Amino acid sequence: MQVTETRSEGLRREFKVTLPATELEQRLTSELSTLKDRVRINGFRPGKVPIAHLRRLYGRSVMADVVQNAVNEANRKIVEENNLKLALEPKIDMTGDQAEVEKALDAKGDLDFTVAVEVLPTFDLVDLSDVSVKKLVAPVTDQEVDEALQRMAAQNRSFSSKGEGAEAAQGDRVVVDFIGRIGGEAFQGGTASDITVELGSGSFIPGFEEQLVGIKAGESRTITVTFPQNYGSAELAGKEAEFEVTAKEVQAPGEVTIDDEFAKGFGMESLEKLRDGVRAAIQRDFDAQARRKLKKELLDALDAKYSFDLPQGLVDQEFAAVWSQVEADLKSNGRTFADEGTTEEEARAEYRRIAERRVRLGLVLAQVGSSADIKVTDEEVDRALIERVRQYPGQERQVWEYFQKNPAAKAELRAPILEEKTVDHLLERINVVEEQTSREELFRDEDETKAAENAAA
């Protein structure tokens, strides 16, 4: 086997590999000799089948294995002898026309192919002593705990009939039957019976609940609404529909007293214990948001510190994943790039930059983790697996067995753990300044994004 480097540009390398016909013949004969002792062919004793006969029967299929083994061997040889760290799997291209390839497969001509690889960039880790990031600290207030308890009480309150002739008000429930029509024609999924509508919950199409305010049991109304542009069903999105609604019962919410008895309904021995649990849960949410912001600020600092050539294959792969999600989101929301105030060309350029940033930061974190010898233990992976299993109630056993039977899937759990440990390692080596803030400030960016999305919908 002859291997010659034919290209070296940036992170790209290309090698020409040649297997002379004589070597192909030797490899094929060796494989057939091994096969001779394993096959059973009528008319021949075990191990006595002539090589020429085996070649007629199995020559092409065995040669396919010979070629694949040669390709694998060439890849290993290229990587080991040139001390390369590959970004992606090598790309193999058979050279020559079909006639030349056919001759090689019959071991009557040389086999030529190229191996194109893209290597990981080499770069030095930079000094981060001048980097300073802000860690937001948001204590949970008594008011926030009270509001959470009020929401819990509202979600767990009972409802009872308001009686004959009573009108439905905001906060009441109305049990209804309805038939929905578009253009006078009933549509699939638009008819239902004994549906409970809680007025003011925002659970139904915008405008539906509001038009039920004041309805009485036994009363029928025709309600006109427009399905949102981002409605789940493309056939209904953006269309105006009429619903013929008949109220069967109007129910009023009962009073819920937030006391020790209320707390026992949640498995707590007292209201004080419930308040402590609620406070701790809210604090975990605050801390998780603060961590996300702290990590983003750190990654922004790293992105500003590093500049090196990127493996375009990795960037292309990352961009494809990002772009696929962008297109899926636009389609599900019934929106276009024009609705987002941009063009497809501008969006592609922006998301290409995002893909490049992700690849760059991924390589930096990987080198930091390797240099610091950061490891992920089996116990940490098992804990992550348990958390993943808990996300699928009722399917715990199937999910657990899937990961146990698929080492690659289980290995994927290591990546985010390693990333978080590497982030912790970096945070210990830079200046982290704590700053007190409120819930509103902590979640301001997310709240503004949600408000914009709701307004656009």
What would you say about this model in short?
The protein is an alpha+beta fold and 457 residues long. It is 48% helix and 19% strand.
What keyword list fits this structure?
extended; Chitinase A, domain 3; Alpha-Beta Plaits; 11 strands; 457 residues; 4-stranded antiparallel β-sheet; single chain; disordered C terminus; 14 helices; cell division; Trigger_fac_C; alpha+beta; 5-stranded antiparallel β-sheet
Quaternary form: single chain
Number of helices: 14
Mean pLDDT: 89
Question: Which stretches are low in confidence, meaning pLDDT under 50 for 5 or more residues running?
Answer: 449-457
Could you describe the largest sheet, including whether it forms a barrel?
5 strands, antiparallel
Give a count of the beta strands, DSSP E runs of length 2 or more.
11
| N-end to C-end Cα span | 63 Å
Question: Which radius of gyration do the C-alpha atoms yield?
Answer: 33 Å
**Strand/helix succession:** EEHHEHEEHEEEEEHHHHHHHHEHH
Helix fraction?
40-55%
Strand content: 15-25%
Quickly count the domains: 3
Principal-axis shape: extended
Structural class: alpha+beta
Molecular structure report:
- A hairpin with a 2-residue loop joins strand 1 and strand 2.
- This protein has three domains: 2-118, Trigger factor ribosome-binding domain (Alpha-Beta Plaits, 2-Layer Sandwich); 158-253, Chitinase A, domain 3 (Roll), CATH 3.10.50; 261-309 and 372-456, no CATH class.
- The strands form three sheets. Strands 6, 7, 8, 9 and 10 form a five-stranded antiparallel sheet that branches. The chain has a four-stranded antiparallel sheet with strand order 1-2-4-3.
- Helices cover 48% and strands 19% of the residues.
- The two termini are 63 Å apart.
- It is α+β, with helices and mostly antiparallel strands.
